[in-house]
Amino acid sequence: MASPLIPPAEVAAYGGLPSPTPHTEAELAALLALLTAPRMRITTVVVGHSRDVASRSSAAAFAEAWRAAGRQPVLAMVDWPESAASWLRAAHRFTAGEPDAWVVAAAPVGWAQMSRRLRHSTDWDPARTFGFAALGDSRVPALTGPATLHGMRGATADGGTWAIDRGWVTQQLPARRMPVPPRGTL
């Protein structure tokens, strides 16, 4: 059986993928909107994150916002290193609670490695996975292989959304609000 690990030369071929940045309020709101849309019927979530400061902060902010929205507590918070020998232990912790959805705040390379391990060793479903802006980079599905992240969605820093479809990342701009006309007489 082939290893799901991405060879170092392949990671290097994609250049330096950006490190996660602190989430924005618009990003957090868009992510919550994706998960709480009426058609989604998501009640339980597991949150996973890299060990960098921005990812930890984003994961904690999501868990707090999820609770503040009156949702069930997050089933588990799972972290993983940016580099590891296998990610198997983290993958099993990430999928153990059998949640309705997974939320990910992570560095692109660590998430690429983790997602390949998830597809290889668990029943994880990328179509039930939602990520912060750092993961909406087209190099992430290119690095993992087109089928690994098919169906994953997330939020952009400006409050838009992104989705992965057959290896392509597509983005939808945030909804524009029409300006409110002034009231009264001129």
Describe this structure in words.
With 186 residues, the protein is of the alpha/beta class. Helix content is 33%, strand content 17%. The chain has six helices and seven strands. A seven-stranded mixed β-sheet has the order 2-1-3-4-5-6-7. Helix 4 (88-95) crosses helix 5 (108-121). The longest helix has 16 residues, at 53-68. The model has no long low-confidence stretch (mean pLDDT 90).
Helix content: 25-40%
Main sheet: which strands, in order across? 2-1-3-4-5-6-7
What is the average per-residue confidence, as pLDDT, rounded to a whole number? Answer: 90
Structural class: alpha/beta
Task: Spell out the helices and strands N to C.
Answer: HHEHEHEHEHEEE
Oligomerization? single chain
- Whole-angstrom Rg: 17 Å
Model regions low in confidence, pLDDT < 50 over at least 5 residues: none
